[in-house]
Design a protein that fits this description.
- The chain has 401 residues and is α/β, with parallel strands linked by helices.
- The protein contains 16 helices and 13 strands.
- The protein has a 7-stranded parallel β-sheet, with helices on both faces.
- Helix 6 links the parallel strand 4 and strand 5.
- Helix 1 packs across helix 16 and helix 10 crosses helix 14.
- The radius of gyration is 21 Å and the shape is globular.
Length: 401
């Protein structure tokens, strides 16, 4: 097959969860099909990474762009039919670049990442089937974000206005799509209930690079003090919300049971609210680090107190591949098919989350069991090559050249 792949960013280095998914699936697709990649380079960044993609793609082009300013509420925003979160990615020169890149080439399928890129195929390229890889289902994510976070009257109005338009836009995209590729069964259920009963959906869960994330990759010992880790991009709303909930409602009770607790917050671009946690006893905020694996090995447990779903959740399989057990909310672990008490510990209330975390910190046997079972799980079914082959086989079967 000949695939036209369009990404809203350059997913290398793989220093964000979505980059891991898009990079590894792209590389797998290129093993089985001919791939032409066009990706956006925000403010011209990461353009030096072209040789990485040229190794496995037939053609590669990076298109520089900058986000426009957010429009004023009235009249520009309210009177425009597109949701602002989608319109923010719509620029004439991007459409022109896609047309120029594709001109003279025949494609069996266009594979795009997320609906912000799918918008360029609503009316154009009508004879090319469209596959949308959803790193998150936007409507689901924005509803969860609205429900989990307190909003002032103005922000509540903006949320309502964007969601109303996004519902319409999601349904337009579904009518155009030949398949929507989602991260988990919960995403498929949401699409069926709120967007479309008819659009084909293929679930390709998130995975892990087992050549990189392996316990033998670093010699860092476990910390001598009981240590929990929270890992992820620290400017990403669900992660910021998770930490806010953890420190407000879980951490005080956990500290009472584990007085010498240490907390590692590891991830790039911490916003001021996240930086402020470093003033608390035993809490370290590292910011971006060149290699996250030593922190996985130092931690006794990784905590994933997410309340907003719809994301890639890659921190969980990474931790499991490093042999570090995970305590997560059900939302945080959605789509991975993990089992409470076997390969993960799940808790959804502040009391339960503090209890499960304290129990695991106190019980070496429990930590060892969860860590070993999690390690076996990722090796059995969450490695990127097998997930990429699943997607490649689906495309070959449903869109034969």
């Amino acid at each position: 097959m000949r695939l036209l792949v369009v990404y809203p960013y350059i997913p290398f280095p793989v220093d964000r969860g979505t980059y891991q998914r898009t990079f590894h699936l792209l590389r797998s697709l290129a093993r089985y099909h001919e791939v032409d990649l066009l990706a956006l380079s925000e403010d011209g960044e990461r353009r030096e990474q072209m040789p990485v993609f040229a190794e496995f793609c037939r053609r590669v082009e990076f298109v520089p762009f900058s986000h426009p300013q957010w429009p004023r509420l009235f009249p520009d925003r309210l009177l425009h039919p597109l949701p602002t979160t989608v319109r923010h990615w719509r620029l004439p020169h991007i459409a022109e670049s896609i047309h120029r890149f594709a001109d003279g080439h025949r494609y069996d399928l266009a594979h795009v990442c997320d609906i912000v890129m799918a918008q360029y195929f609503l009316k154009d390229f009508p004879h090319v089937p469209l596959a949308i890889d959803r790193s998150r289902v936007d409507l689901q994510f924005q509803i969860a974000q609205r429900d989990a976070m307190s909003r002032g009257p103005r922000q509540a109005l903006l949320d309502w206005e964007n969601l109303a338009k996004l519902r319409i836009f999601e349904r337009r995209i579904a009518r155009r799509a030949a398949v929507e590729v989602v991260c988990g069964p919960d995403d498929e259920t949401f699409i069926r209930e709120h967007i479309s009963r008819d659009v084909p959906v293929e679930v390709v869960t998130n995975g892990v690079d087992l050549d990189y994330f392996t316990p033998g990759a670093c010699t860092e010992p476990r910390d001598t003090h009981p240590t929990v880790l929270f890992c992820g991009a620290m400017d990403y709303t669900p992660n910021v919300d998770a930490l806010r909930w953890y420190f407000a409602e879980i951490h005080p009770a956990l500290r009472q049971r584990v007085p010498d607790l240490r907390v590692l917050i590891v991830g790039k671009s911490p916003v001021p609210d996240v930086q402020a946690y470093a003033t608390l006893p035993g809490v370290t905020v590292t910011g971006g680090v060149p290699d996250v694996r030593p922190f996985y090995r130092r931690a006794w447990i990784q905590i994933v107190p997410l309340r907003i779903g719809g994301g890639t959740r890659l921190k969980i399989p990474e931790s499991m591949a490093m042999g570090t057990p995970v305590v997560s909310t059900t939302i945080g672990a959605q789509g991975l098919g993990l089992r409470h008490g076997i390969d993960i510990l799940l808790a959804d209330s502040p009391h339960a989350f503090a209890h499960e975390t304290a129990r695991a910190l106190a019980d070496t046997t429990l930590r060892s069991h969860i860590g070993q079972e999690g390690f076996h799980t990722v090796h059995a079914r969450l490695a990127w090559p097998m997930l990429g082959k699943q997607l490649s086989d689906y495309y070959a079967t449903h869109f034969p050249s």
